[in-house]
Design a protein that fits this description.
By secondary structure, this protein is mainly alpha-helical. 36% of the residues lie in helices and 6% in strands.
Length: 143
């Protein structure tokens, strides 16, 4: 019977430190190249989500108009799509899942009459301030 100590030296399987460092460097380079592109796509997704939600809010306001004969006033705001503002003919709620916030956590803004259309429903974007570009750009039902 052979003992472990009497056998010739055998190389144990595994990775060397140099091999592991090379793999880590390659992964770091890939993350540096791919990461910014992924985050840019994520930002665009929030703007697209806001545009879809605004279209849904606009459709709900159109249903409100069909039932009541007018759009919600500026004082009633988008809340009139959820709760009856004592308007005759109101047949809501007009939003299936309640009034959403924009993807950046701010309430959507509503103007009636609007500056761009009969009503304006919009978000100021990531910076929650008028104008801007990229993720800070305004998203509204007029675009």
């Amino acid at each position: 019977m052979k003992s472990y100590h009497n056998t010739p030296f055998r190389r144990l399987s595994g990775f060397t430190l140099v091999e592991l460092l090379v793999v880590l460097v390659i992964l770091g380079l890939l993350a540096g190249l791919v990461g910014p592109r992924v985050f840019n796509q994520l930002g665009g997704a929030k703007s697209k989500t806001a545009a879809v939600q605004i279209k849904d809010l606009e459709q709900a306001a159109d249903l409100f108009r069909l039932d009541v004969g007018r759009y919600p006033t500026a004082n009633e705001g988008l809340g009139a799509l959820e709760t009856n503002p004592n308007a005759s003919g109101w047949n809501g709620p007009y939003l299936k899942h309640g009034l959403p916030d924009d993807p950046w956590g701010n309430p959507y803004r509503y103007e009636s009459p609007g500056r761009h259309a009969e009503i304006d429903i919009f978000s100021y974007g990531a910076d929650n301030a008028p104008a801007g570009s990229g993720e800070n750009a305004d998203v509204g039902n007029w675009k």
